[in-house]
Amino acid sequence: MNVSNPKQNIWQVIFASSAGTLIEWYDFYIFGSLSLILAEKFFPDSNPTLAYIATLATFAIGFVVRPFGAIVFGRLGDMVGRKYTFLLTLLIMGGSTFAIGLIPSYATIGVFAPILVLILRLAQGLALGGEYGGAATYVAEHSPANRRGYFTSFIQTTATLGLFVSLGVILATRLMMTPESFNDWGWRIPFWLSIFLVLMSYYIRIKLHESPLFSKLKAEGKTSANPLKESFGNKENLKLVLLALFGATMGQGVVWYTGQFYALSFLQNTMKIEFIQSNIIIATALLFGTPLFLLFGHLSDKIGRKKIMMAGMLIAAISYFPIYNAMDSTVDMSRKQEIAERYRIERNSSESNGTQFESTRKIREYTDGTIVTEVTVNEKQPTKEVKLGQSQTIWVIFLVFIQVVFVTMVYGPIAAFLVELFPTRIRYTSMSLPYHIGNGIFGGMLPAIATLLVQRYNNHLAGLIYPVAIAIICLVIGVVFIKERKSADGFEEEPEV
Length: 497
Known about the structure:
Elements: H1 10-33, H2 35-42, H3 48-64, H4 66-79, H5 82-100, H6 106-109, H7 112-140, H8 148-175, H9 179-184, H10 189-205, H11 212-219, H12 227-233, H13 235-270, H14 275-289, H15 291-303, H16 305-329, E1 344-352, E2 355-365, E3 371-377, E4 383-387, H17 390-411, H18 414-419, H19 427-443, H20 446-457, H21 465-481
Helix pairs in contact: 1-5, 1-7, 1-8, 1-10, 2-3, 3-7, 3-19, 3-20, 4-5, 4-7, 4-19, 5-7, 5-10, 7-8, 7-19, 8-14, 8-15, 12-13, 13-14, 13-16, 13-17, 13-19, 13-21, 14-17, 15-16, 15-17, 16-17, 16-21
């Protein structure tokens, strides 16, 4: 069936949908990208480790509430329409993100700082819970059946591109000012910038027409009066929702967050890689890996969604421990030779907003180009920074890139897989919930759970137990219970399960 709208072609639909979704992901992820600084600003500094875990927990809260956003906005999208629902989520996300950049620090307003951050993080999570399902459904309902995987894969790039843009904006802001100024107030700029991006995206999206399939249903009076009851009260549809969760999105979620967010967290907090270099490593890997979303989306139209997603989970589960062990070994100083005569101590003094900063840096250089700096600011507990040499930097970029390949395998085809499971009248609601439970809870909780596992077992690699276990469980369920299908000729046909 030709579902094209004569007033807008598929590329207009993809551009408008993707631009808005990218900005929402940007808004959502700058919080995680700046988690170390936010821990200092919004939580007591008496226990830095506990403050960081609390920040990760606040970050995770935004994921935990995503399923509730999927229910609220999914219902709205199936009753009112796809277009206006994801316009609303865009404005909520942008306003919440901008407001986080305005919150005074813990030192200024005390316990109200983390409370306000938590409230706004909840709003972000609710908004994102309604955004993705709407954008994916909107694009899918404009796409020809034999290219649905390819066209929806453009939406799949936006999550990674949003992270990439957030890292780029943070790096650009950091490079324009001193470390002290960035730590003092400059970190707020990426949050403030979101309001302009959101307004631009809103202007682009407001010109879109409603999905043709939904418009046809609405004109015929066939839209669902109770999408929640039809989605989760109907035994057969509930079976599909559970299969989508435990056989696909759960494993996809942990692979996505391991290959990007946990990789960044591991670089910064376990390996102690210097802030700018760690972000450059992740951003470079994402830059090279992002086109593969389109490749695997296209392949899913040819060979099926299941084969690609299950292969991605399997390879990821097998590879994570050796990959992270190889990453960790690059900062094993017992394997390196120090250049003793280059050891030096540097002292600097600067002022930002009336605050005087006295810093001491003890610097060690190694023959492979690695530089280790121990930094003490205003006599606080010293921190360690590692800057890798060129060859090792390239090696770590490659190791992160391999993880991004796994991400593209499981994530590229999944939008098409989900939209093809459910009928048009309840698609927004039905696909959004398993997606956001799989990604929001199983995936979003990964940084906090992994950090706790590392603390519990005092082992750098212990955090990987969680994503490997979840990926294997999902792989088994998916292989056993999901039957392959590709390029379904119509949304209304019953999928094989």
